[in-house]
Amino acid sequence: xxxxRTASQWFNLPAGALWGVLADLRRWPDWxxxxxxxxxxxxxxxxxxxxxxxxxxxVGLLHRRTAPGFAVAQLDPGxxxxxxxxxxxxxxxxxxxxxxxxxxxxxxxxxxxxGPLAQQFGLTAGEPLVRGxxxxxxxxYRLAAPASPTATLDGAPSGPLTVIAGGTGSLGTALASxxxxxxHEVALLTRSFKKxxxxxxxxxGRGQGEWSDELGARGRLNIxxxxxVSLDRPGTPENITMLAATRVEPTRALVTxxxxxxxxxxxxxxxxxxxxxxxxxxxxGETAVPPADAPGLAGVxxxxxxxxxxxxAAHSIVLRTGVVLExxxxxxVRLTVPARLGAGGALGTGGQWFSWIHIADWLRVVRAALxxxxxxxxxxxxxxxxxxxxxSPHPVQNRELMAHVREYVGVPLGIPAxxxxxxxxxxxxRTNPQLALESVRAVPGVLTAAxxxxxxxxxxxxxxxxxx
Length: 468
Description:
The protein contains 16 helices and 20 strands.
């Protein structure tokens, strides 16, 4: 039995700069917060022994007292390291590799556990090491870049500062890390300072202040506005008001500030959601007129987009985003936990439509909206200003979604949940059944017309990537 997780990130740095950090195992905790300390007996060489301790308090204490050390099982200087640690009946491999590609370097981390207890140790030992991979990479970039100040290829310091409001959430973290690793200057607007490898600027998300003066003094500026708490909460009147406020107020604050700056924002990416289309079983492209009177979440998104009117930007895109799928996405927890218990059948009628996009494609869409190459080695894609549906070209019905969820967790059968049962369960789980029971069949007309090629156009491919 095996458990494994693999993830990769392209860096706008030469392999040597990254190797200088990876090869010094004492610096492992500096870029992976799941590691409290690490050491190596002697110099880095095959067969050398070392130890590491997890930062989790209880697991770390047990690990220090009971876990054996690791050995450097494989070493290709400048290219790869494999650490092998024995486990009961098997072992854990931690592998890092570097591949020079497209003028930079692809860093790949793979954690594998084998043996009869691989799944159990995977959850306690392996999963913390790979969680938050994007932020790990941003920290790794920060450590590696100063050692080679001329390594970045696009002169990022002289380019625009990209400011991300709502940048400490899951999407903001992924985007900030992607941009940092590409060598761009990034800052986060945040209500309170958090542990982050990215520079943070304090604001209250409502009024003007020092943050506005600082951004207005910049010669060149991009904005990505992702501010807003999760929509996944009960649809009470109080929650609907709160959901709207956490989106409308920051958007208005940014728009008001932009009008006072000496020059317009170069590119503004305004997050929105396909929920604006309401319960829409018919395909809804960007030219479709959203219902003006749809209640609940559709009304929240309408107010959100209306707050963006009047922004001072040379180029602006309103990104109506579907459900973003990634391994750590909250929706996967919502769907996989009952599926593992045998309750992974169709929700409601099973015929409602589900609009989604893989995190890798969402990041490429945002890069296009910022006028950047979609990925290393690609050219920028010219997107017109206005509304862009950030969704896969192949939305699926709920019964197909749940079939993929069951395959993902390895439980072939699942009990369906009729709408009344789902509503009752949602009340217990403190979620909004509207998210699962309403159809949202958005299609990416603008992206398709612009020639955007999805890496994960089909849901099956997206689940395969997440399972890897």
